[in-house]
Amino acid sequence: MQTVPNHQVENLQIEDDRTGLSVECLKRAFLDNLFYVQGKFPKIATKNDYYMALAYTVRDRLLQRWINTAVIYTERASRTVSYLSAEFLMGPHLGNNLVNLGIYDQVKQAVSELGLDLEDLLEQEEEPGLGNGGLGRLAACYLDSMATLEIPSLGYGIRYEFGIFDQDIRDGWQVEITDKWLHCGNPWEIARPEWEVYVKLGGHTEAYTDEHGRYRVRWIPYQVVKGVPHDTPILGYKTNTANTLRLWTAEAPESFDFGAFNSGDYLGAVQAKMVSENLSKVLYPNDDSSQGKRLRLAQQIFFVSCSLQDMIRIVFRQNVPLEKFHEKFVVQLNDTHPAIAVAELMRLLIDEHDMGWDQAWSITQKSLAYTNHTLLPEALERWPISLFRSLLPRHLEIIYEINYHFLEEVKAKFPGDSDRLRRMSLIDESGEKYVRMAHLACVGSHSINGVAALHTKLLQQDVLRDFYQMYPEKFNNKTNGVTPRRFMVLSNPRLTNLISSKIGDSWIKHLKDLKKLEAFVDDPEFCHQWRSIKSAIKHDLVAYIQKQNGISVNPDSIFDIQAKRFHEYKRQHLNALHIITLYNRIKANPDIDITPRTFIFGGKAAPGYYMAKLIIKLLNSIADVVNNDPDVRDRLKVVFLKDYSVKFAQRVYPAADLSEQISMAGKEASGTGNMKFALNGALTIGTLDGANVEIRDEVGAENFFIFGLTAPEVYALKARGYRPLDYYHSNRELKAVIDRIASGHFSHGDTQLFKPLLDSLLHRDEYLLFADYQAYIDCQDNVSQVYRDRDRWTRMSILNVARMGKFSSDRSIRDYCQDIWNIQSVPIELGECIQAKENMRPITM
Ligand SMILES: *Cc1c(COP(=O)(O)O)cnc(C)c1O
């Protein structure tokens, strides 16, 4: 049993190395926290107690930087980025903080000297799954890069009590389980109730004339909700900067419905409290689709209003006049989820701070910038006017007024074009009336950006064409990126160490330096090491798959991985058609020479998205048959790994040989999974969609497996009239695949189970699987061929990594800083920093 240190004796020394980084200090702090924070000692501590003790030990080492950063930003009233996002898919904090603090190895040693395994403790952390997928993960990567680049920034969002659901697979079907991520406590956040704010909802408005004879509007809400900020430090990589992620929880104001309480309606008052708390209860699990639910709109105004009020508080505290709000803050809107900020900032300036319309409008436009994330029409948010009015009556008035001025502008620029007015209006009046949030964001922002070159081009040509013609100067592209800290240094230490042993570690902050690896691509020793590392990582995943799914996998097979949200446009079912094609070839000729493959899938489907869930069921059904068919002789394996998350992603990306990025061209805005795979040495099979285009340009067409229709070809084919049945009848292998599914071969003879999916393909095939089928199969046959030449494959893998420099989120953030934010870094020196012992001085208030 470990002994608990005796503080009586060592008191003085403790104070001085309270946050020391030596192994001895870390060990003592760890046992200290186990005792004083968790209230445990080693004999009775659980793994979670140990995890918590370690988390607090690391947090203590962050606080110095965090507080210091805040003090310096406040003293200098630094220009600050507010990143508004309904989602932040942060992933586990502990490992990332160890990497960014540069104390991973010391901590590993410290806990191991105490008889514990660091990997084990890292595994304990319940990740905050406060996002659905790419969009939320992008926000998290951007926070990491802003801190690393020493850019003053605040991430603003919602502290959902239930994040994205945990996925279980039962009988091949997805089952959703609530994500109780706060169950064991969250050591990374600090609540700041002193900065609570109030948000109004519902009710009605009244016009009045103020003492200066001006027309004013008063909003009498039906309900008021309190927002309480919870702050999490976001540390930069080997800098002293620690920025803040500020997430809001909704609570009932203490005084709320006191009347009901006094009149004896205690349960009624409690009920009202619960209604308020609902606002931050659960993350909507729909990715790339909008449902128009009242609670969702309430969540949006809740976190946007809290955040803007918080910014105004900061402006006042730093003695910046409100007229200079846009000089202190630039507010980036991550998709349209926070687009209500346009009307809310106007309302705050005009109604709450007595500003005139024109000045308020100028400040609003100068402050806000909008990032579009989608080309899918069903993902464009619009709210029924009646719903909007009942929840946000004042905002609707403001939007009508913005619309009036805006349409006047359109008329002036395009006289006599009434069709254009109808198309561009903030209000959709084609049937039931809607507020169009993307239009509101475009009009109220000074910058509109897409997230990959192709995506931005398609926005300009298609989705936002009218706005591009109206405001060409607002449009710009910011290709997405990913953080190499989490998705290489933390998740792939073996490859990180090999790379750094050859070219040093500057690439971790300057990813373009990976280019230096090209000098080693003809070095046989280096290539051998490269291949052994990939093989070792694959062996780890083999063990994981054996444990999780009970499937034995051949580590020498091609690890062919598609991990992302399930959506028809992403075409996991095209991948399925390839698997069945290979299976049919084996069934027709059991001795056929096939390059062994392991198909690995991961991803969640929106709970209400029937077709996506049916595709998950199909993949699991194929797995059952293929993995157990003696004819296959272990040449093919199909594995569905449940519960895709950031933790999962960190485990899986490094093990991939082949990355599946096979969306129908013109649908994937950017993708970032494609970048994470390639950065870890996977080769990509992909369409010319999203950032795939730019990845291929960077790594070279000869190092990338491209196939399928391009975006213009997709439009042309659809315009001509696409007939999937023609492909079915004229392609023998395709027909055999469809017939095999239809026969019930993968469903115990049930011919109905997959019928909805087959019908949708045969009669509509919106995402052109049949049109791309042959090109995909041919390309996959080529992949199998190339994989047999291991030297060639390794060379391609090295060149992919060497040429991924562009796709660091650091590069994306530098571009945002230069082109949109007009902001410079503010380095933090730890020299004259605030010390914990300053608290010992007499407090003056
Ligand atoms: C990167 C990432 C995504 C986005 O993947 P895409 O392939 O770009 O759709 C989604 N979820 C998690 C957990 C990720 O890490």
TrEMBL record:
**Does the keyword Glycosyltransferase belong to this entry?**
yes
Domain of life of the source = Bacteria
Requisite cofactors? pyridoxal 5'-phosphate
**InterPro entries, per the entry:** Glycg_phsphrylas, Glyco_trans_35, Pyridoxal_P_attach_site
Q: Name one GO biological process term.
A: glycogen catabolic process
Q: Where is the signal peptide?
A: none
What positions are modified (N6-(pyridoxal phosphate)lysine)? K676
* UniProt xrefs under CDD domains: GT35_Glycogen_Phosphorylase
Q: Show the SUPFAM superfamilies listed in the entry.
A: UDP-Glycosyltransferase/glycogen phosphorylase
Question: Single GO cellular component annotation?
Answer: cytoplasm
Which major enzyme category is it? Answer: transferase
Q: Which catalytic reaction applies to this protein? A: [(1->4)-alpha-D-glucosyl](n) + phosphate = [(1->4)-alpha-D-glucosyl](n-1) + alpha-D-glucose 1-phosphate
Q: Which keywords, in A-to-Z order, does the entry hold?
A: Carbohydrate metabolism, Glycogen metabolism, Glycosyltransferase, Pyridoxal phosphate, Transferase
- Which GO molecular function entries does the Swiss-Prot or TrEMBL record give? glycogen phosphorylase activity; pyridoxal phosphate binding
State the Pfam families in the record: Phosphorylase (PF00343)
Q: What Enzyme Commission number(s) apply to this enzyme? A: 2.4.1.1
NCBIfam families to which the protein is assigned, alphabetical:
P_ylase (TIGR02093)
Q: What does this protein do?
A: Phosphorylase is an important allosteric enzyme in carbohydrate metabolism. Enzymes from different sources differ in their regulatory mechanisms and in their natural substrates. However, all known phosphorylases share catalytic and structural properties. Allosteric enzyme that catalyzes the rate-limiting step in glycogen catabolism, the phosphorolytic cleavage of glycogen to produce glucose-1-phosphate, and plays a central role in maintaining cellular and organismal glucose homeostasis.
Similarity comment text for this entry: Belongs to the glycogen phosphorylase family.
What is this protein's record name?
Alpha-1,4 glucan phosphorylase
Q: Which organism encodes this protein?
A: Chroogloeocystis siderophila 5.2 s.c.1
Taxonomic path: Bacteria, Bacillati, Cyanobacteriota, Cyanophyceae, Oscillatoriophycideae
